[in-house]
Amino acid sequence: MTTVIAFILMFGLLVFVHEWGHLIFAKRAGMLAREFAIGFGPKVFSFTKNETLYTIRLIPAGGYVRVAGEDPEIIDLKPGHHIGLEFDESGLVNKIVVNNKSRHPDARIVEVEHADLDHTLTINGYEPGEEEKLSFNVHPEAMFVMDEKETQIAPYDRQFASKPKRKRAMQLFAGPMMNFVLALILFTILGFVQGIPSDEARFGEIQDNSPASEAGFRAGDEVIQAEGQQVESWEDFTKIVQEHPEETMTVTLTRNGTTEEVEVTPRSVKAQEREIGQVGVTRAFEDSFAKKATFGFTQTYEWSTLILTNLGKLITGQFSIDMLSGPVGIYDATDRVVQTGLTNFVMWTAVLSVNLGIVNLMPIPALDGGRLLFIGVELIRGKPVDPQKEGAITFFGFALLLLLMIVVTWNDIQRLFL
After folding, report:
1. Which positions, given as ranges, span the membrane (predicted)?
2. Residue 305 zone, left/alpha/beta (φ > 0; ψ -120 to 50; rest)
3. What pLDDT is stored for residue 1 in this prediction?
4. Residue 19 annotated among the catalytic residues of the structure
5. Residue 332: what pLDDT?
6. Model pLDDT, residue 272
7. CB under 8 Å, gap of 24 or more: what pairs does 107-113 form?
8. First to last CA, the chain
9. Helix axis angle, 2-28 relative to 165-194, nearest 10°?
10. Which residue ranges of the chain lie beneath pLDDT 70?
11. Is the distance from CB of 314 to CB of 324 less than 8 angstroms?
């Protein structure tokens, strides 16, 4: 149950921060943000505030911010269409009733001759059976009512496509950017709470009933040699240990100014489809204010570099697609991380936030990076990509991502039960 709660909190935080970035910069640009959603599928909870519908949906596989102009939201009013109009105190149309007009007895029935709800905000037409031409001005925040569902109209200047390229690009980039900001904050908090991991192969905590505890390792011991190999950093030591699962190793370390040799047999654990060794120790931490103040930046940079390197290996075929994890694999990893303590869980959340930011910036249709690529093409061509072509490419990209998610999730399930 602890893992379930931790996973929900972590997932909710990562998605919320990402989508909140999109929402804030959409509103700053003057776009009409119709919906802010956590999850997909049927609504579990919703409320409306400041023009935006906030929803929590059933399937925890992401989220979205729906901005006016990105999807067909209201039908076009065609000549001959009979509609009902309601007015505010100033005489502007504040409600356009498309059907079920009998439920709106105060609405004025009009046969449409021409309607423009994007630019001029006018509706021209006639009362049924009359010849006098009528013209009505529409309030820029008027409601379009169809099947008793109200949708706020979006004049062109409130739509995504109407904004300058830099504002559209910033609105798309803001989501991944906020994931990097979240990671930086979490890493900084960790730095001030627990200190800065030492670069030396010096032990911090020794886990109970671990190979390290059985071998007599103590906090503060510093490894200088392992299996005949010189050890100069913590990474050197962990690499040697991982290469010797269930094999007795000789470790040379310094303790209180003296040098000792200790034998230890790393426990075998499964990681990324292979067996690696672990002895059950954590690295020591330093108490340096300067390093604490910069820890968030250095860790965000280092993890970004590592993730980009691994993505490059995946693209070039050096890594198999089987090494990817989806929600099921992340849940399983979260389960193991939660058992090791709160600080490791916070670190895991920060790493996933960096990963989410980078993945979303990849130039793949349907992701933020793919949409940024279209704006780049528009900048080079001097005109936007045809909306129908962009929509078709985005749909194709979404289908590929969905297929990849199915494959990755299937692999995750197999790893759990095989």
Report:
1. 6-25, 172-193, 391-410
2. alpha
3. 67
4. yes
5. 83
6. 60
7. 108/84, 109/82, 109/83, 109/84, 109/85, 110/82, 110/83, 110/84, 110/85, 110/134, 110/136, 111/80, 111/81, 111/82, 112/77, 112/78, 112/79, 112/80, 112/81, 112/82, 112/83, 113/79
8. 23
9. 140
10. 1, 271-273, 418
11. yes
